[in-house]
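Researcher: We plan to redesign the surface later, but first we want a full-length starting point. Tokens attached.
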């Protein structure tokens, strides 16, 4: 098993490298640092302020390689990131510097050492911003994840227990209807009914002060649970219905096992493989937060932070979130394989 884990971790290296390369290239395709500096500092910012802004973030260095750009169009692209001659307004090539002293290789080195740089919009260290946003995101996503998983499993097992009955048919219709409603509708109606109409919970804002924090978290958590409950129940119900037809279920009934024991012990245990796939794959999103809910409820988590970064063109924070999200997703896949082996003794990690 140890050899398997080492190989899987080594497989992550080229994947993460590919993510960083694609993200870096897209950054220069979407926008150039000079244009972004003028957007953040203002179109009338003095040239010295723009130059200092670029220098503080390393944007004054060559893009891919520190080579002489006067040789050919390819070398100009390696230095300036574009074939357009008009983009080469200021010299970036520094003869006394190494060839790999460029934005691309420096960004890879920084990400490998978890040096996420500073924010393009606020000049704050990105790692501090992420640390500040993790806790509010987890305070919403973790309760919603646990509560949603328990309710979806119980709901699907109940529908399987009363399968082919009127309750099963109408319950399926209800959950299909709930999964057909966009999450934004749950947000709007939740804010209107629970916050505006009855005044039970705040419609917007976040205040981390002891038990009063629950008032700000309850409504977002309920919205997230209802938004994902329908699709999860429908999927788990299909999985359990497939398991209920197996031969070992008839054997369990023949031995006198009750229907509840068959569902909770046999069906649930043998249907864990696809459930583990869905559950563990969603774990990275617990840390990264949810964009819609955090934005509409004013929760200062990573999801809201990412939305603001897109609005303000804070590419440093966006690249950092993409990089961290990729690491979490790959670790989630590794954890999925480990859970497979723990849930099914027939699976071996080799």
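Model: Full-length starting sequence:
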């Amino acid at each position: 098993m140890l050899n398997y884990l080492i190989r899987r971790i080594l497989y992550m290296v080229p994947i993460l490298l590919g993510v960083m390369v694609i993200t870096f290239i897209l950054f220069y395709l979407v926008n150039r640092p000079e244009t972004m500096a003028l957007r953040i500092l203002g179109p009338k910012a003095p040239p010295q302020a723009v130059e200092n802004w670029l220098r503080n973030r390393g944007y004054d260095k060559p893009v891919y390689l520190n080579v002489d750009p006067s040789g050919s169009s390819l070398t100009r692209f390696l230095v300036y990131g574009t074939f357009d001659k008009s983009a080469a307004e200021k010299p970036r090539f520094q003869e006394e510097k190494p060839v790999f002293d460029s934005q691309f290789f420096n960004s890879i080195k920084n990400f490998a050492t978890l040096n996420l740089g500073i924010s393009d919009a606020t000049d704050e260290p990105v790692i501090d911003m992420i640390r500040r946003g993790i806790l509010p995101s987890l305070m919403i996503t973790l309760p919603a994840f646990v509560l949603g998983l328990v309710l979806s499993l119980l709901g699907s097992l109940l529908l399987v227990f009363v399968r082919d009955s009127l309750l099963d048919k109408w319950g399926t219709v209800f959950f299909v209807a709930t999964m057909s409603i966009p999450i934004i509708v749950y947000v709007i109606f939740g804010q209107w009914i629970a916050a505006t109409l009855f005044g039970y919970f705040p419609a917007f804002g976040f205040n981390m002060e002891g038990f009063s924090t629950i008032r700000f978290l309850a409504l977002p958590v309920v919205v997230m649970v209802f938004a994902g409950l329908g699709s999860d129940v429908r999927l788990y119900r299909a999985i359990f219905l497939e398991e209920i037809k197996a031969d070992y279920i008839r054997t369990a009934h023949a031995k006198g096992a009750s229907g509840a024991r068959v569902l909770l012990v046999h069906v649930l245990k043998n249907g864990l493989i696809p459930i583990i796939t869905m559950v563990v794959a969603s774990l990275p999103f617990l840390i990264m937060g949810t964009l819609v809910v955090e934005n509409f409820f004013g929760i200062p988590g990573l999801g809201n932070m990412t939305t603001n970064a897109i609005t303000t063109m804070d590419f440093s924070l966006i690249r950092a979130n993409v990089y961290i999200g990729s690491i979490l997703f790959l670790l989630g896949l590794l954890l999925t394989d480990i859970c497979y082996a723990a849930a099914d003794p027939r699976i071996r990690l080799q």
